Amino acid sequence: MVTREDNDLLTRVEGDVPMGQIMRRHWLPACMSEEVAVADGAPVRTRMLGEDLVVFRDSEGRLGVLGEHCPHRRASLAFGRNEESGLRCLYHGWKFDVGGNVLDTPCEPETGRLKLERKHKSYPVHEGGGFVWIYMGPRETFHEFEPPNWAPAPDTRISIVKMHTPCNWAQVLEGSIDSAHSSSLHSSIMRPMDVDGAKATEDLWPRPSTDTAPRMRFQPTSFGFRYAAVRTPNTNAATHDYVRITLFVAPFTVIIPPNDQYKLAQMLFPIDDENTMFYFIAWHETKGIDQDSWRKFCYARVGIDLDENYRKIRTLENRFLQDRGAMRQGDFTGIKGIPAQDMAMWESMGPITDRTEDNLGASDIAVIQFRRQMIQAARNFRDGGAAIGTSEPRVPKLKLSSFEGIVPKSTDWRTLGVSEEERKSHATVDSADGRIIVRR
Fold this sequence. Notes:
Layout (H helix, E strand, L loop, with lengths): L3 H8 L6 H7 L2 E6 L11 E5 L2 E7 L5 E5 L13 E3 L2 E3 L6 E2 L5 E3 L20 E4 L2 E5 L21 E9 L3 H8 L38 E6 L3 E8 L8 E10 L3 E4 L6 E10 L2 E10 L6 H7 L26 H5 L9 H11 L16 H18 L20 E6 L11 H5 L2 E3 L6 E3 L2
Antiparallel strand pairs: 1-10, 2-3, 3-4, 5-6, 6-7, 7-8, 9-10, 11-17, 12-13, 13-14, 14-15, 14-18, 15-16, 16-17, 19-20
Helix pairs in contact: 1-7, 2-7
């Protein structure tokens, strides 16, 4: 049972609360690289953990992330001039470099000009894997950027969907780790067919099972957890299982089972307490899907499905443009695109769902464990412990992978998709206090 206090510990991220401070001990996605691809281009507004920021690439190609509001009179730097190695506020001309240093205060008399050593809020930046990342934590916990698992090589084919959803990050993430709902909510796209594994076509994700009630298996790890949804396959049902393994990489990343064309991950990053930026990543070392096709498949095209701020045209207010006629003709939801189908459910729960009213079942094991693990992580941090995912043993993110496939029933699912690096650091969580205990 989740109490109201527990629900607040899990969901609240703004200010000095434990969950927001845990997030700040990790590298965080400020925006996609493509949004600031052009040097001297317009600054990009972003909001992260309740803070308003701007991202820009200066005339030298350097990336900067600054507080959005000029420290002089609080005008927005999103309107600023991106010129000559810095960003200049339009209001009085104060100019800042990528490190937040004040380069110029032209409105001040020469004799009384403010000291230029004053700094504006800025954060360390790194570009990689299709994203601009920032570190928002204290200096004493800073650590070098670690590439995500979808960027194993510079030429990896990466495609990204970005969408805003007006609800709390935790109910979004709970949807991403909930394998059972795909058999109903996404059943018109993830159709059961006579195939030997998960496939991807231009408009479908065929799967080799009609089983709508998977048996759930769970394994805590040092980075979060992995779990398996075990279904009866359409073929060789007496001797084989269809296994889909998902990884939760604390605090906000989910590695989803792949198909035969691309691998999948999601980042469910908190904009603030009641808004989340949803990133859906498809990638592959040799195959993959191009950016335009990926966004078309997900109904996430800017100017068609989304506005310039990645907000949907399908919203709770217009019932996600649900087509009841299509539902009568066999479409299960009448809603276009896997992300919008999910968001209709997440947003319908309210900005922050009341978990004290839930009635959970056997299919909710991953959700239950996520709540238990992250609430305990917040308590541990509040009591002086390290942020989850930052302590030893640590598995390189590039060595983490999900799995899907039909395997003999005798197969130990915990060995599937596991790298040698992860195997060596297998861990379990002490249910009494949430500590990581290493089993080698």
